[in-house]
Design a protein that fits this description.
Helix content is about 20%, strand content about 30%.
Length: about 500
């Protein structure tokens, strides 16, 4: 970028017939060098568009410098790098007024290394670019079936189309038993309904009697309903609930999974079911807003399929991810927690803390390394690492990069790791040079639970994880790791590396 800035300043001076020796007088050439570095690879994440911006605006910088020099020539002052500073500030100010950051992206964290900034940003977009920060869960226990999905043909129409209806079905696909003539004959009737996420109960309607089967109440369309305010601009509405079944009151704070009411058959509901929707305003019956469920399993003939950040499909049978208490406690990163670590015979002490942005991290003073972590209740994963690749904390980072905190076996969890530490030998300089345009090397990560001694009350679970590095010109064998979780201990083994973590 430094070269491009100076080179196109040279081209501009030749095209305008200006003496090129002016590029070396009073540090004039430094304007173009700094301009290329600042706009092309520091304040903006390096990409093809940042290169074009530097090239396209270099003639403007040339005019800035020439104009400023002429203005102050009579007072025997030199502008030095003033023109670079003025144009850079002007360009950054204009870019900050945008509502969409599509072509020119500002780095969220400045790593003071343009290649590292590219790799971190690419990895972040691969992992979290489409992820919703606020994760909802399904509003029920056990397995339910989506009887009507988004844009359903019955009642999910127009502006109210992004909603879901749920019922319970048996192995034959029926949602009731016997003659199905009464509410009580339906499997889902009177079953508990849960809060899909933390929030405050904003509104409750509890004035509608349950309908008889195949009879609907169109005057009180939504029936008995609860609206929960999740405090980040999102509201959820659950309707057709059983009258007088509410376990909470308006103003109550509820946590994810709290029982709030029971499934009923009130309102425009010919058969018992629950209606669920996300909305951006708090009134009952507001326009729906498409929003995915954080994690859920879909039932199949073999093992269940894990869905992350998706909307359940109509006629699919789904359920929330069952939590493994042992795994959750092992990877529950509470600030202030101390970890006693033994790595290949050496002792280390790790501390869990939070930074100014409320991000949780593990710090190893002995190896001067830091790893940033998340535990959202269903998944444990790392978001960043700073330090040496030879540190035990990096071994922990690479081995447990992303783990599903459930006792469900053989569910593959896949992810991508950044290239900052995992460059194949002999390719780093070549990939660094091409990083703004194309990433040729990929670091793939996968983990899955392979062993659990007791599904309901486990005392030992074992994960198998591996990383695989591949590129157009190089393929490396995968690095396999065994992660064994015990009560108050995590044991990690990979070839000649052994890590044991105990917490106080």
């Amino acid at each position: 970028m430094a070269f491009l800035g100076f080179f196109f300043a040279f081209v501009t001076s030749k095209m305008m017939g200006v003496d090129i020796q002016q590029l070396t007088q009073n540090l004039a050439g430094v304007n173009y060098i700094f301009w290329g570095m600042a706009i092309g690879s520091f304040f903006i994440i390096p990409n093809a568009y940042s290169y074009l911006l530097v090239i396209g605006l270099t003639p403007v910088l040339f005019l800035f410098y020439t104009g400023i020099e002429n203005l102050i020539s009579g007072i025997d002052l030199a502008s030095y790098t003033l023109s670079f500073s003025l144009l850079s500030i002007l360009v950054l100010f204009i870019l900050r007024q945008r509502s969409l950051n599509r072509f020119f992206i500002f780095p969220y964290i400045q790593y003071y290394n343009p290649e590292k900034t590219v790799y971190k940003n690419v990895n972040y977009m691969q992992r979290f670019g489409q992820e919703m920060l606020f994760k909802l869960q399904l509003p029920f226990l056990d397995q339910w079936t989506v009887s009507q999905g988004y844009d359903g043909t019955i009642t999910h129409l127009g502006a109210w189309g992004k909603a879901l209806d749920f019922v319970i079905t048996d192995d034959e696909g029926s949602n009731c038993f016997g003659r199905c003539a009464q509410k009580e004959d339906f499997y889902c009737y009177n079953k508990p309904v849960l809060a899909p996420a933390d929030g405050y109960v904003y509104m409750i309607s509890n004035i509608t009697d349950d309908n008889e089967i195949n009879s609907v109440n169109t005057k009180k369309n939504w029936g008995n309903t609860i609206v929960i305010n999740h405090l980040n601009g999102l509201f959820t509405q659950i309707s057709h609930l059983k009258k007088d079944s509410f376990k909470v009151r308006v103003g109550d704070y509820v946590t994810k999974g709290t029982v709030v009411a029971a499934c009923g058959n009130s309102g425009r509901s010919p058969e018992p079911h629950i209606h669920f929707q996300v909305q951006l305003t708090p009134e009952i019956g507001a326009v729906t807003h498409p929003y995915p469920i954080g994690y859920f399993f879909e039932k199949t003939k073999d093992r269940p399929i894990l869905h992350i950040g998706e909307t359940p499909k109509e006629n699919s049978t789904i359920f929330n991810v069952p939590l493994s208490g042992l795994s959750f406690d092992a990877f529950d990163a509470k600030p202030g927690k101390m970890l006693n670590v033994k790595y290949n015979g050496d002792d280390f002490l790790w501390q869990i803390a939070t930074d100014a942005y409320n991000k949780t991290y593990i710090r190893c003073e002995k190896s001067k390394s830091t790893a940033y972590i998340e535990n959202d209740g269903t998944m444990f994963y790392f978001t960043d690492f700073v330090g040496k690749k030879s540190s035990p904390l990096y071994f922990f980072y690479r081995s447990c990069f992303k783990l599903l905190l459930s006792n469900e076996k053989e569910i593959p969890i896949k992810d991508s790791m950044p290239l900052t530490k995992e460059h194949p030998l002999g390719t780093k300089w070549f990939q660094d040079f091409l990083a703004p345009f194309v990433i040729l090397t990929r670091v793939k990560y996968q983990s899955q639970l392979t062993d659990v001694d007791n599904v309901h009350y486990p005392e030992k679970v074992v994960y198998h994880t591996y990383t695989r590095i591949s590129s157009l010109i190089f393929r490396q064998h995968k690095k396999e790791t065994s992660v064994r979780v015990l009560k108050n201990r995590i044991e990690i083994n990979s070839q000649k590396q052994e890590l044991c973590i105990d917490w106080v």
